[in-house]
Specification:
50% helix; eight-stranded mixed β-sheet; 631 residues; single chain; 8% strand; 12 strands; alpha/beta; globular
């Protein structure tokens, strides 16, 4: 009797152990699934095992586990929490993959402010998934199926442990708060730059692709969160910055209000042309015809009314508004988080710009963009924050000629001449075009590419160069019209950025190169676009040259010509060439440019023996002008 009782108790214990092993297996599976979510999310764009060290992988896994824990406490059901974690990982990973395809930069926290702008141009891009995207998505779907099979009936035992509904609510609320606190603590721990070396993290914020591939999407995103606000420079004082500007100020030239005096100034037309660039700087192109014959002829002329050069911009393939911001404000993206968009993140109050300076000189100011006002928050920026006298968007254009689905540059330029004819006061017109906007993969009945490249069968490259040719022709027609104008007028044309790698890759392939294996000097070329100043009167060409600022041209190894610069200096050079008084800030920037001819979000180029304190002084001044200075 006693021995039978002992055997029965042992059998009962074995049954209990069997049940416990099953539960432990379910728990192990639950912990492994977020790890799989992490690796699959990364796999959409790269192989994390080859780009990431073990520490960054561990930190990402810990975040995914904490994220699962949070949703487990919110939903109380294991399967539901796993589904939310897996689906969100799949959606974010897929979205990031498309953003990388279109913009060549990963998703960053401040992209939330750009959703409307992205949606407005989304239908011009191809969303056909690659084979890699398909296979990774299938992997996520398999995880969902396995998770359902393994954890469908698992839930937190709050009902068994808590006798009343009130106690269950209290426990659930407490655990949710605990999980949120863990995630917040992890974020606070991962963000400080001083900890990144010990954490094995790559911390070069200005190279977002490399940072994402080395640190993982989740950790990179968490680190970027701290840059939603601009950090105040060390030793910054608004009063000191104001005093510096006052030392540059010249009341006679910055506070002109006399109408007679203002009429001596020329009309100023600035055309920031969408994705306009000369792909020939990336590699020699042999085409059936020149894709920008007029501008190439201007680059080779010694005419007194023309200045040409190359601009170093901060963006590639997208984020047009940042080039716009640098030109109109004189500030540089070098001092702001990589990928950020000041128009949407940091500009909250009216600030001093080229617009406000020209208005003080008696100019009538007009902004033009043949697309939707909501893009990059332009309606508010142009009107409330920069104070243009008038703004024209797509509904304000008439007799539009479309190329593909966008308003042609020729239509924009016709609008420019119409506005110039409406006013006898000197005018400043800022025109941001849309004709050449990506993508270049779709075919349209109203656009037949006519430029081909010897040795390349890329239809995308052919389309892009054919679009550039149309811009070139429209610009030539505009200058011919303005040449006959009695009032003096100066026109500045420049690109906002180069197109993405779908255009660059065929160019590089002609010389056996790829975007992924470029040298630093070759990468710099991807951030250079041409600019042309043309006037119906003689320009001060010496003033428009960087070499005139005290640096020897033979030392400018980081530039293509003596006239090259970054966008932040361009408005000052434009006014100098046209003999229009500079603002106090533009005079300050002259001194900065003499030491640092290029300061962009991509690179900084200094002359030999440059004064490093000048760069820090510029950082403080840019902060002051963006956030503290009154218009």
């Amino acid at each position: 009797m006693g021995s039978r009782l002992v055997r029965t108790e042992k059998q009962h214990d074995r049954k209990k152990i069997k049940v416990n092993w099953k539960r432990w297996g379910q728990i192990l599976f639950t912990l492994l699934l977020p790890m799989a979510d992490f690796y699959l999310l990364e796999a959409y764009t790269h192989n994390p095992f080859t780009t990431m060290g073990w520490k960054p992988q561990l930190w990402n896994i810990l975040f995914f586990e904490g994220f699962l824990l949070f949703w487990l406490f919110v939903t109380t059901r294991v399967w539901t929490a796993l589904t939310v974690t897996t689906v969100l990982s799949m959606v974010v990973g897929l979205g990031n993959c498309y953003v990388m395809r279109f913009r060549e930069n990963p998703i960053v926290p401040w992209d939330i402010f750009s959703i409307k702008t992205a949606a407005s141009v989304a239908d011009n891009y191809s969303f056909v998934p690659s084979a890699r995207m398909v296979w990774v998505t299938i992997g996520f779907l398999i995880l969902l199926i396995l998770g359902r099979a393994a954890t469908a009936h698992l839930c937190l035992p709050w009902k068994e442990l808590c006798k009343t509904r009130a106690s269950r609510i209290g426990v659930q609320a407490g655990t949710i708060f605990l999980a949120a606190a863990i995630l917040a603590g992890f974020t606070a721990w991962i963000q400080p730059e001083k900890n990144h070396y010990r954490q094995g993290l790559y911390d070069k914020l200005f190279t977002p692709i490399a940072m994402m591939e080395k640190d993982g999407f989740a950790v990179t995103f968490l680190i970027d969160l701290q840059y939603l606000l601009v950090e105040k420079p060390a030793g910054y004082s608004a009063a000191e910055e104001q005093a510096i500007l006052e030392a540059y100020a010249d009341t006679e030239t910055t506070q002109v209000s006399d109408t007679t005096a203002s009429q001596e100034y020329p009309d100023i037309v600035v055309i920031m042309d969408e994705a306009f660039s000369d792909m020939g700087i990336l590699g020699e192109l042999h085409c059936n015809e020149d894709y920008m014959p007029y501008i190439h002829s201007l680059q080779q002329t010694d005419a007194a009314n023309v200045v040409t050069g190359y601009l170093n911009v901060s963006v590639l393939g997208g984020n047009t508004a940042n080039t716009e911001y640098e030109f109109l404000t004189g500030n540089s993206m070098a001092f702001l988080p990589a990928g950020s968009v000041p128009y949407q993140q940091y500009m909250r109050n009216a600030l001093p710009t080229l617009v406000s300076h020209l208005e003080k000189l008696g100019y009538t100011t007009t902004a033009m963009h043949p697309y939707y006002a909501s893009g990059w928050n332009r309606e508010k920026v142009y009107g409330d924050l920069m104070g243009f006298d008038a703004s024209y968007f797509l509904p304000d254009f008439y007799n539009i000629r479309y190329i593909r689905k966008y308003t042609s540059d020729a239509t924009c330029f016709n609008k420019v001449t119409d506005i110039l004819d409406d006013d006898t006061q000197p005018q400043f017109i800022f025109n941001v075009t849309m004709q050449n906007h990506g993508s270049y993969s779709k075919d349209y009945d109203n656009f037949i590419p006519d430029v081909t490249v010897e040795g390349s069968d890329s239809a995308i490259l052919s389309k892009y160069l054919s679009l550039v040719k149309k811009t070139d022709a429209a610009f030539e027609q505009l200058t011919q019209q303005l040449q006959e104008r009695e009032r003096p007028v100066i026109v500045l044309l420049f690109g906002d950025h180069q197109p993405n790698s779908t255009v660059a890759n065929p160019v590089l392939a002609l010389s056996g190169r790829r975007v992924s294996v470029l040298s630093e000097e070759e990468e710099n070329l991807q951030y250079m676009v041409p600019y042309v100043m043309w006037a119906n009167f003689d320009l001060d060409k010496t003033a428009a040259s960087f070499a005139s600022n005290g640096a020897k041209s033979e030392e400018n190894s980081g530039l293509l010509t003596d006239n090259d610069m970054s966008v932040n200096y361009l408005s000052g050079k434009l006014l100098q060439a046209a003999d229009v008084p500079l603002s106090d800030y533009q005079k300050f920037l002259q001194d900065v440019q003499a030491q640092y001819p290029v300061i962009s979000g991509w690179r900084t180029y200094a002359v030999p023996d440059a004064d490093a304190t000048m760069l820090e002084s510029y950082r403080k001044m840019a902060y002051y002008r963006l956030l503290d200075a009154e218009k």
